[in-house]
Amino acid sequence: MTDAPDPVFTEPWHAQVFALTVHLNEAGHFDWPEWASHFGATLKKNGLSKELDGGDDYFTAWLETLEQFLASKDLADLRDVAEIKNAWERAYLSTPHGAPVTLEQEMSEKR
Known about the structure:
Layout: H1 12-26, H2 32-45, H3 56-72, H4 78-94, H5 104-110
Helix pairs in contact: 1-3, 2-3
């Protein structure tokens, strides 16, 4: 038996998107009440009225909010975001199981 606490985030990407949001807040790109308002609107729009456990449903809504929020602040272009998402999807779908997923091949084909 171990006394180690349960992880706060169930997936690495949950921690990454959370940390990115905190970093952008601390860098002065937005204040936390503004973020919370947008995130709450996303949760309401997606009908997430159930109790969230901090899993994929919660962090998918978090990511959706971050993408839209950054676009509204002219900090990201939604077309660029979609292009990068699509590149990652193609990369992980074409990567053999167990091999690291990279965008190197994907990005070099664009050049």
